[in-house]
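EI: anyone free to look at a 287-residue chain?
SC: sure, send it
EI:
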Amino acid sequence: MPDEIKNEDRYFINTQPPDPIFDIPFAGISYPNPRYMKRRDSSMKLLVFEYVIRGSGEIHSEHLSSRLVEGDLYIVNASYPQVYFSDCSDPYEKIWVNATGRLVESLAEVYIPGKPFVVCHGCESCYDDFLRIHSLLHDSSNIHNQNRRREIFDEISLILHRLLLAAVRGQGRPVPEKLSSDKLAVAIKSAIDRRVTQPLNLRELSERYFVSVNHIIRCFCLEYGITPKQYQLKRRIDTADELMLNTDLSLGEIAGILGFTSLQHFSSTYRRYRGYPPAKKLQPSDG
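SC: here you go
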């Protein structure tokens, strides 16, 4: 299968003669593409620093593999064959930098000898480093003074060294288990059922299950036909019925318990779901 690297913005292409000590030949951003795949079969003296901005994917080598999700930093040692690709149902967006030179080769020998890649899960703070590199490379494109340009690349080399340290120290953290779409939907449903009265925080759930918020919503809709937010509202209305029938709580107290901003908010939502106001539920039936 050929590489699929469309939707890619190489925001930096080095047109200067390569520096044998340290150099950046390319840097860019890969936007979500369900067919994205990068395969390296031949040995290259290159380290690729990548950060997953959103979405997910996977990376594989002969004896090593890892799932990649939002917030992950991974560093590829192109001296070894490997393949990495986006999840077709939740393709990732990632920012990356390619580095070469004797300094890069030495860092690889010291920190990741014999390893085709390293991954640090949940390295959100590293994103700022990639944004800083992006800014520095943009500045370097407009600078003709070689001394100033060298200072910029020296700073980038220090940032990449720091990222490599972060990735190595992140080794040993558990790789999250990837839930199938139906199991993820069930897990989200159970989380909502346990906390009907609390605010629905999809960002928190996405971090717990290492997927994007959009992926959660998509899987939930496929399994149950409604969004997580719609399901929580339905559960709150069902719970309101139970509280009105089985307790002496006022409508205002029930509204507060179930997280509605006001009695009016509760009443209008209840009417939309049931077709009549909640007060009618408290009235004795004619029979």
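EI: The longest strand covers residues 47-54.
SC: 👍
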